[in-house]
Amino acid sequence: KLISSCKHFSAYDLENWGGKTRFTFSAEVSERDLVEYYWVPFRACVERAHAKSIMCSLNAVNGIPSCGYGLFQNGIVRDEWGFEGFFVSDCGAIREIASSHHYLNSTE
Predict the structure, then answer these.
(1) Going by C-beta distance under 8 Å and a sequence separation of 6 or more, which residues neighbour residue 95?
(2) 79 is catalytic
(3) What is the pLDDT of residues 80-98, one digit of tens each?
(4) What does the alpha-carbon distance between residue 10 and residue 56 come to, in Å, rounded to a whole number?
């Protein structure tokens, strides 16, 4: 069976700029900008295209690494949009929660 995966959720738009990389960057984004700009294509992926996978991004959003942001993944995507698929991480994104974002002491 073939599925589609929408990526990179959420607020991902930086590779390397001003000493920040996608591994260390925290996008400081208002709730309004998330809802009206960044989340529009992802919501369409879920509600209109019926995607079965969403890839979280390497960056953090408002200080919380995207791949560890339970409010986004469960509260918004699953509960509000009705997503029933699965989340996948970008290469190394789980490791980066501890090593680059320093959000956790370890990934264990």
Answers:
(1) 107
(2) no
(3) 999 999 999 988 888 888 8
(4) 7
Q: Which helix (H) or strand (E) holds 7?
A: strand 5-9
Residue 55 contacts residue 91 (beta carbons within 8 Å): no
The single residue of 13, 33, 79, 90 carrying the catalytic annotation is 90
> What's residue 107's pLDDT?
57
What is the Cα 52 distance to its own chain's centre?
15
Q: How confident is the model at residue 42 (pLDDT cuts 50, 70, 90)?
A: very high
Nearest Cα residue to 87 out of 102, 76, 96, 103: 76
- State yes or no: pLDDT of 14 exceeds 80: no
Cβ neighbours around 45 below 10 Å, total: 23
The answer to whether the beta carbons of residues 14 and 27 sit under 8 Å apart is yes
HSE-up (13 A, CA, CB side) for residue 61: 23
